[in-house]
């Protein structure tokens, strides 16, 4: 069981390095239960709109929703995320995703150094 953070998806969707993409996809295959935060869906959609177009953004969001169990932000995660953001000075999205990983005791697939309060998994 793992929570896949935005950087994972961005690397899988945009990397031109087949070796890296293959290793990242292998993490997904071995995860048994793959989760993503609804905040990650937002970030991937927004970044794709900025760099490509709405059709590609919709396709990427649909792929995430199809292949991953999505965890929505609730009040408890929001409060923990605010605490993390305040203490560590990390952006809101990162703090909410980290709070989600903490709440569900999930390692987080990311190479983002902000994710200091949870176990990180990367290739």
Describe the structure.
The protein is α/β, with parallel strands linked by helices and 123 residues long. The chain has a single domain, classed as Rossmann fold, CATH 3.40.50.1010. Helix content is 62%, strand content 11%. The protein is built from six helices and five strands; from the N terminus they run βααβααβααββ. It has helices at residues 6-14, 18-30, 38-51, 54-67, 75-88, 92-103, and strands at 2-4, 34-37, 69-71, 108-109, 120-121. Strands 3-2-1-4-5 form a five-stranded parallel β-sheet. Helix 3 packs antiparallel against helix 4 (54-67) and helix 5 crosses helix 6 (92-103). The longest helix is centred in the middle third of the chain and has 14 residues, at 38-51. It is globular. The model has no long low-confidence stretch (mean pLDDT 95).
Summarize the structure.
With about 120 residues, the chain is of the alpha/beta class.
Strand segment count: 5
C-alpha end-to-end distance: 16 Å
Roughly what percent helix?
A: 55-70%
How large a portion of the residues is in β-strands, by DSSP E?
5-15%
Provide the low-confidence segments as ranges: none
By CATH's scheme, which homologous superfamily applies?
A: 5'-nuclease
The CATH architecture term is 3-Layer(aba) Sandwich
Instruction: Compute the number of structural domains.
Output: 1
Mass-distribution shape = globular
CATH topology: Rossmann fold
Query: What series of H and E elements makes up the topology?
Result: EHHEHHEHHEE
């Amino acid at each position: 069981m793992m929570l896949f953070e935005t950087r994972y998806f961005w690397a899988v969707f945009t990397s031109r390095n087949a070796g890296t993409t293959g290793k990242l996809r292998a993490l997904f295959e071995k995860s048994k239960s793959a989760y993503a935060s609804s905040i990650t869906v937002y970030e991937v959609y927004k970044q794709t709109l900025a760099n490509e177009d709405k059709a590609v953004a919709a396709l990427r969001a649909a792929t995430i929703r199809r292949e991953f169990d999505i965890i929505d932000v609730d009040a408890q995660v929001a409060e923990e995320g605010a605490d993390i953001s305040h203490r560590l000075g990390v952006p809101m999205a990162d703090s909410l995703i980290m709070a989600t990983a903490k709440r569900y005791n999930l390692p987080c697939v990311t190479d983002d150094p902000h994710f200091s309060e949870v176990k990180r998994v990367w290739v």
